[in-house]
Amino acid sequence: MESSKERLLAWKNGKITAGERRILMTKWLGQSWEEYVKNHQATITNAFKRCGMYNALDGSESHLIKIRKYSAYKAPAKNEKIMSL
Prior knowledge:
The chain is an all-alpha fold. It contains 3 helices and no strands.
């Protein structure tokens, strides 16, 4: 959009096709995600740790698991055996 005044005007006047809009929005979303991942890695890692998806296998980070609206959840103790499927 910024590269061409004609493209910007076409966007504002609704002359861009639905397919072109989907492609542009997909590109914008991809660029936004890349920027977010680059600048907020700790936030992403912490979110995974809070739901138990990126924690140490030895149980040393089980205390980090916090499941909203489910306060009864208790992570297994560090040395406690976990049943497997």
